[in-house]
Amino acid sequence: MFRSLTVSSQGVGALIGCLMVGPISKLGAKHVLMCWNNVILIAGVYTGLACAFAPLYLQQIIPKNIKGSMSCFLHIAVCFGSSLGAIFSLPFMFGSDTTWPILVVLPAAFGIVMLGASYLIPDTPNNLLQMGRYTEAIESIKFYYDIEDSDEDEIIKEYWDMVPEMPEQLSLCSAFMNSSIRRGILLGMIVSATQIFSGSMVSISYSTEMFTAVSFIDSLVPFLPALGSIISILLTIPALRWVETRGRRPLLLKTLMFCIAANVFLLIFTLLSGERSGWASWGFAAAFFMYGIGYNLGVGPVAYFLPAELVPPEAASASLGAAVAVNWVCTITTTLFYYPLSKLVGGWSYLIFIIPTSLFSMILWRLLPETKFHYKIDPLEIRLLTDLGPSIAPNYGTLDLDEPTLF
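The chain above was modelled as a monomer; its predicted structure follows.
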């Protein structure tokens, strides 16, 4: 139980960080992510702020026609960080009884590097233009997009044609007052909950215990977290294309079905391994790999940015903050209860993933709109239509029945 409390404690700090998203979003995503975030010493709070502001920062700089593909790199970055953490945690690196303090201090070195980089990387053009700092905005546009033109107005126009406007952000309370925005926020929260209840954080935190429980090869078990993170990066590569060509909705829902099936197989092979069936441990490994395919092709990367696409641009930070908060509540729940359940009921503990994910999938199948086509719609036009009343403006998302959903 103590191990479960230790693993889940980071989620408590991250949840506190999520509650700070709204009040400090006015400082700008870049400054919070690269500067202010790194002076916070509590690791959990740091994680919560980073999970919310990293997608928000990407929303402000990524060209609209490749937003989905480039946002998938956030998932790749998370997998890369996980692989580094797993490698550094090996006993012959910094995971021994004598070297673990180095492992604890090591993230501070990355924080110092990010603080230094924050002085070299300018604020986003979107934020600078909102503050009326046009000269700095021109230089920022040239830095991010290498746009060269003697006419500064043309530079700004070319930037707005390429990157969607991210207006001043609404608070969570203000966003919830609008029924259409509220619907998008709630759907984003369900998407985020589904990502965790599919088993993602538990598979990262307890992968060695999972494989030990099915009597997998002892010499390979310590290396599985690092190997799994590297494989996750490779499996995400097809998602860079599929998220644009096949759409967010079908990619998310189909890979969710894949994850549910994988969890069912994990349950079965864990139960069979208790009967001393040697082949069951290899069946468990195949099911774990099957889960990795489903999660990294769709559920993992899509859930990072989809909550922001389900609402108008001015509610992006509110939606992401709420989604990340739910994400960490679910992380606390799953990491706290899985391990003692696995000791108590063995393979039946996978029902903690199968049942909630199945319920969430049915809700998303019924209510989740396709958001891939948002870049075709002008944000100003959306807000003007919203001002004209609910009889004209639909719920946010691709709800036009004549528009293909690719599903």
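Confidence is low (pLDDT under 50) at residues 381-407.
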